[in-house]
Amino acid sequence: MFERLKLLRNDKDLDQKDLADFLGVVQQTYSRYESGEISITAEAIVKLSTFYGVSTDYLLELTNNPKRNY
Question: Is the confidence at residue 30, as pLDDT, over 80?
Answer without folding.
Answer: yes
